Amino acid sequence: MKTALICGISGQDGSYLAQLLLDRGYEVWGTSRDAQMSSFRNLSRLEIRDRVKVESMSLTDFRSVLQVLDKCQPDEVYNLAGQSSVGLSFEQPVETLASIATGTLNLLEAIRFTGATTKFYNAGSSECFGDTGGSPADENTPFRPRSPYAVAKSAAFWEVSNYREAYGLFACSGILYNHESPLRPERFVTQKIVSAACRIAKGSQEKLQLGNTSVCRDWGYAKEYVEAMYLMLQQPQADDYAIATGETYSLQEFVEAAFACVDLNWQDWVVTNETLFRPTDIAISRGNPSKANQKLAWEARSKMPDVVRLMVEAKLNKEN
After folding, report:
1. Quick check: is 127 catalytic?
2. pTM of the model
């Protein structure tokens, strides 16, 4: 039986990854900053909470990281922790950089320090590419980060690359494009849209306030994207992969799809609020997943309209 440690197991990706690894016969450990106080709501929602061992760990504390690695002796470590909101990173740049860049460095250094043969996966981000002018980005596209979150993710990416080359660690980054699911919290605009559409369909007279809806994103389904994470660590050699659908939709199209699922005209309910615009933003985001298609035999099966429908159905079923 293989053992996996998922840092940030309580989030959307961590919970789906835990489910996938359990289905493949792994012993799964997970961490959060305070495991005694965390509800692990997503694990409970997937009905796997009692099958996962949890530990408290502070990624910015090297001793804490070392102790947890020593306790669970993982074959594979998946680093999905750290501040995960692009918007929030403008308000908390120091916390964002520390939790992502320092946290990743501590995990890599702890694996190197112990001499373990642990395989390491790092959650990279398409935000690192910045604005590519609509051109699909792949593993060779230069990084031009446009947010504190993207700066932190870029630093973490190069840390992983450095430890792979300098110390021979099996360490790789998945450069993931936007991926959503019913497990997304409402601080993310996608779930904010879905939740509002469902409330309005049930009689609420509220108006949904959004920032710039002309931005375009490559949206996939989180449950499929964690399959790519797993596959990266099963390869003979460590490498980095861009994970995307290859298709781009505007945020307005996402809104239209969500409201159409509940038979509403979005234009009757959506208001633009300029205070919600980001200081800098990416106009068009599109990925080229051909390397993952070829080397991992991975392909996105769900596109934006499919993901929106899944999210709306889950929200309506949860409230009924």
Report:
1. yes
2. 0.95
